[in-house]
Amino acid sequence: MDRVKNTTISLTFSESAVLHQLLIADGVCGKEELLAIGWPDRVVAATSLTQCISTLRKKLENYPEVQLKTVARRGYELHISERSHIKMLAVNDAESIKTALIDVSMMVKIAGIVLVLLLILFGWYNSDYHRSVKNSSLWNADKKIPLNIGGTKEIVPMFYKSEVEHLHHSMWQKHLAPESNHLDNFKNFEGFTATDGRNYSMAVCPNVVKGQCSGLGLMNIAAIDPNPAGLNINQFAELSERLEKRIRYNKIIIPHDSSDGDITEHHYHADVYFPVAGELLVRADLSLSLIYEGEDSGQFYSATCITDEDCLTTPIKYKVRGTFKQYQQKISGMAVDVFQVQLSQKEFIKPETVSPSAMHFYRAIRKHDITDEELYFYRVYTDEKSAVWITPILGSIVAWYKYDQVRI
């Protein structure tokens, strides 16, 4: 077959066998040799070979680079010009001989290279890493805003999604009642803010020493309603401390068959509060656990428990587990650890009673239970005792987590 002209050259068995022998021969092929190969187990006249050679020459006449020459009193020899772009393959079956004349033109080479590049691009586009890059690109962190917590003012970074329009610091500050925004022994703090356009959250670690957060007294507040919540920060500090001293509903059971030998569990815990004017204060008890099985992959566990300050809502529990891959990305120049989680198990424990204050969270978690297959968690800060995560379970909410490492 001529793959450039898309034409087929038909060869008989004898023609295929003779051409094959001429291809593999190192020099001249004798007539007796070609007769024996072209007509095995048969006795034919020398004219049969002469006719075969004549037919082959006619079939090759469109390829002047290929010449079948007669060597007087010796036999025949096949010549292929060194400058030829024809490639002939020495094979021993008729079907392969038909494909032996291949013109590998520049266009064919270019088309092959383009095809390989397209396959590589397609594989990359559908890879886990590309999805991680794509999800990270939805976030920005090139802005900072002033935040007043307990009468102390600091400038804190803001993570926001590209489509969000309202980024003024008042979108966070307005939920803290100014007349009660004072805390004793609140000397300084480090903080982060985040918004996906629906939720405006802040994560605060008080009294940071030499850039290290102790993991104590962490304050995580998320606003889900655009109207000012009027949160009394003094009462909130006392109430949150009292709530967090109660028995924690949220427990993560780490299966001991996850791997052989000792297991190191990297455990993160946070309490996030959702103030809404005129409603009970809702609390989310959040836990994350990572068990590394490789340098940047392993088992992932997350548990969420929702209740309100008067426990009118029977706890809404949502647990997920799966495998994670960890990537380091840059969001507006800030190094961020991205955890891509493929879910393998979900457990949603429906409450017996839901207060109006907690109904928003019931709907959100129920939707996750129905739709989630892959989730992205962002760790935007970490030190020896704490870490700051943006988690997707209750909207894209930033929270400061206490960190513990447990050997199991």
From TrEMBL:
<dbReference type="InterPro" id="IPR036388">
    <property type="entry name" value="WH-like_DNA-bd_sf"/>
</dbReference>
<dbReference type="Pfam" id="PF00486">
    <property type="entry name" value="Trans_reg_C"/>
</dbReference>
<dbReference type="InterPro" id="IPR016032">
    <property type="entry name" value="Sig_transdc_resp-reg_C-effctor"/>
</dbReference>
<keyword id="KW-0238">DNA-binding</keyword>
<protein>
    <submittedName>
        <fullName>Transcriptional regulatory protein</fullName>
    </submittedName>
</protein>
<dbReference type="GO" id="GO:0003677">
    <property type="term" value="F:DNA binding"/>
</dbReference>
<keyword id="KW-0472">Membrane</keyword>
<feature type="domain" description="OmpR/PhoB-type">
    <location>
        <begin position="1"/>
        <end position="80"/>
    </location>
</feature>
<dbReference type="InterPro" id="IPR001867">
    <property type="entry name" value="OmpR/PhoB-type_DNA-bd"/>
</dbReference>
<keyword id="KW-1133">Transmembrane helix</keyword>
<keyword id="KW-0812">Transmembrane</keyword>
<dbReference type="GO" id="GO:0006355">
    <property type="term" value="P:regulation of DNA-templated transcription"/>
</dbReference>
<feature type="transmembrane region" description="Helical">
    <location>
        <begin position="106"/>
        <end position="125"/>
    </location>
</feature>
<dbReference type="GO" id="GO:0000160">
    <property type="term" value="P:phosphorelay signal transduction system"/>
</dbReference>
<feature type="DNA-binding region" description="OmpR/PhoB-type">
    <location>
        <begin position="1"/>
        <end position="80"/>
    </location>
</feature>
